[in-house]
Write a structure and sequence with these properties.
The chain is an alpha+beta fold. The chain has helices at 12-28, 32-35, 67-77, 83-99, 102-113, 137-144, 152-161, 165-178, 184-194, 204-218, 224-233, 238-244, 250-262, 264-272, 274-278, 285-298, 301-308, 325-329, 336-350, 356-374; strands at residues 3-5, 54-56, 124-127, 130-133, 383-387, 392-397, 400-406. The chain has a five-stranded antiparallel beta sheet. The protein has a two-stranded antiparallel sheet with strand order 1-2. β5 (383-387) and β6 form a beta hairpin. The radius of gyration is 34 Å and the shape is elongated. The two termini are 48 Å apart. Residues 1-57 and 328-333 have low confidence and may be disordered.
């Protein structure tokens, strides 16, 4: 607010003197402008200012909020709010920071460089390649950077400097959205370097998932060793890598699949998780061979029985999180017939060495698969599956994961 002061209160004697002077200056005397020395600024006649409001700054008015002040205030206040309150404050913060233009981007860059963060919730939700419910302020700001004007350099800096796979993946997705293919080489280098770092922070598994998806998106065989290194540390992600390798030529895919299954940690994870194992792409001969070897030499009779229990139902869905939805929408569907034939081949390989009770399950699975081959199953309706005993859920559209919600 600004106050206006009108100069109109004068003392009686002083007032008369001023009036007389003004009369002389305005009527009897020549213009001051003609008598001023050259090179000096002409003074405004006093009678032009009398009674004219003069603006004076109000010393009590609050100073405009800077971008840095906005971010610091949000960081300080977020922990005391409910989850809904945090989401509201973050939405408002993003709008205000964007209004500050380059200054807003500058404080975001500094916030990431200083490793600042505030937890917003225990998990996160993603749909159609976008973060709908962010787990932290960093992730919320990164999601905002996906369409923030002028944010390319900030995304580049985060992609190459963060040790958190989830953040790197989002930054790379942002770059690809702003200029498809332009930052491919830089994104690949960032992922290769990230695979060398032991600490990827919270949601490391999700970060690995999306970095593998980026490997597939960029069709980058040079990233396969880095992806294998990540999967070695995070065996639960192995199924995502096996699926992603389907898009690569056999000279790349075959040896990589053999190395994945020969990793003891990954093999143990597959053996203990029959749902994951039977949902692998059996249309790939290397998958058939390696799963058959694991079944016969690395699984207990109980694990074998659990694996075969629903094996004849075929593949439920493709492990593909659609982190790059534009490209995923144009992806070709899988070949259910080829997958069924691969499963029949698998049953033929394991049957000779199977125990009697296992052979019965093999026969039942073979009948189901043969029937499905003769009468193809239509594309399944949308479904929701549970993840990790209540850790979250995924919405599957057709045979592809459309959205995922993780509660941690």
């Amino acid at each position: 607010m600004r106050w206006k002061i009108t100069l109109c209160a004068l003392g009686a004697a002083a007032g008369l003197a001023v009036i007389a002077a003004l009369w002389k200056a305005g009527v009897a005397q020549p213009s001051n402008a003609d008598s001023e020395p050259r090179g000096t600024m002409a003074r405004t006649s006093t009678n032009e200012r009398i009674g004219v409001p003069v603006a004076v700054a109000d010393e009590t008015a609050p100073a405009p909020e800077t971008a840095g002040h906005l971010l610091r205030a949000a960081v300080a206040g977020l922990p005391a709010l409910s989850v809904e309150g945090r989401d509201r404050v973050v939405r408002e913060l993003v709008v205000k920071l964007r209004a500050h233009g380059q200054d807003g981007l500058k404080v975001v860059r500094e916030f990431f460089a200083a490793s600042g963060d505030v937890k917003l919730r225990n998990g996160f939700e993603m749909a159609d390649g976008k973060i709908k419910s962010a787990p932290s302020l960093r992730i919320a700001l990164l999601e905002a950077l996906s369409d923030w004007p002028g944010a390319v350099e900030v995304n580049r800096e985060i992609a190459r400097s963060t040790s958190r796979g989830f953040e790197a993946a989002i930054a790379i997705r942002n770059l690809e959205k702003s200029a498809p293919g332009v930052h491919r080489a830089e994104a690949i280098r960032a992922m290769q370097e990230l695979a060398q770092r032991p600490d990827r922070g919270e949601f490391a598994m999700e970060g690995a998932n999306y970095l593998i998806e980026a490997m597939r998106h960029f069709a980058a065989p040079e990233l396969v060793p880095a992806a294998e290194r990540m999967v070695g540390e995070l065996p639960l992600v192995a199924a995502v890598l096996v699926d992603a390798l389907a898009d690569f030529p056999d000279v790349v895919r075959g040896p990589a699949l053999d190395r994945i299954f020969s990793n003891p940690g990954i093999a143990a994870q597959f053996a203990a998780n029959p749902y994951m194992l039977r949902n692998l792409p059996f249309s790939e001969p290397r998958v058939v061979k390696n799963v058959a070897g694991l079944f016969s030499g690395g699984m207990t009779p109980r694990q074998q029985g659990r694996f075969l229990a629903e094996f004849g139902a075929g593949r439920d869905y493709t492990v593909k999180p659609d982190f790059f939805p534009e490209k995923a929408a144009a992806a070709k569907p899988g070949n259910p017939a080829a997958d069924i034939k691969g499963r029949l081949d698998f049953l033929a390989q394991i049957e000779p060495a199977a125990a009697p009770e296992i052979r019965q399950q093999v026969a039942e699975a073979r009948e189901e698969l043969a029937a499905a081959l003769e009468n193809p199953v239509p594309e399944p309706a949308d479904q929701v599956i549970s993840i990790g005993n209540g850790a979250g859920d995924a919405v599957i559209k057709g045979r592809r994961i459309q959205s995922i919600r993780i509660d941690k």
